[in-house]
Amino acid sequence: MTEASNVAARCRGVIARTLKVPIEKVADQAHFVRDLGMESVQVVELIAALEDEFDIEIDAGRASGNDTVAKAIAQVEETVKS
Predict the structure, then answer these.
(1) CA-CA distances (angstroms) from residue 5 to 12, 37, 42, 64?
(2) Which domains are assigned to the chain?
(3) What pTM was computed for the model?
(4) In 22-34, which positions are buried (b, 16+ CB within 10 angstroms) versus exposed (e)?
(5) Which is it for the CA torsion 34, 23, 45, 72, positive or negative?
(6) pLDDT tens string 5-28
(7) What is the DSSP-derived secondary structure letter of residue 30?
(8) What angle do CA 14, 20, 23 make, to 5 degrees?
(9) Low-confidence stretches of the chain (pLDDT beneath 70)
(10) Angle at CA 41, nearest 5°, toward 74 and 28?
(11) At what angle do helices 3-19 and 40-54 cross, to 10 degrees?
C-alpha cells in the first residue's frame, strides 16, 4: 500500500467512525452533508479526529470548503507531506 492510499484509507476510517456511517458509504465522491448526513457540529469533531489520527493541524478555514470525501483526503495528504 502506498503512502497516499494508506492516508486515504485512514481518512475514510476516521470519517466513518466520526459520522457513524458504514465505511462503504465513504466514497471519494460522497458529499458530507447530502450523502453522509454530517451535521454542522460534526465538522469540528471530524477536523479534530483527523488532526489526532495524523498528528497534524488542519486549517479550519480551508477545511470548510471540503464538501466531499475526496477534497478532505486531498487536504490531509497535502498537510501530511508538508
Answers:
(1) 10, 25, 24, 23
(2) 3-81 (1.10.1200.10)
(3) 0.91
(4) eeeebeeebebee
(5) negative
(6) 799 999 999 999 999 999 999 999
(7) -
(8) 60
(9) 1-2, 4
(10) 25
(11) 140
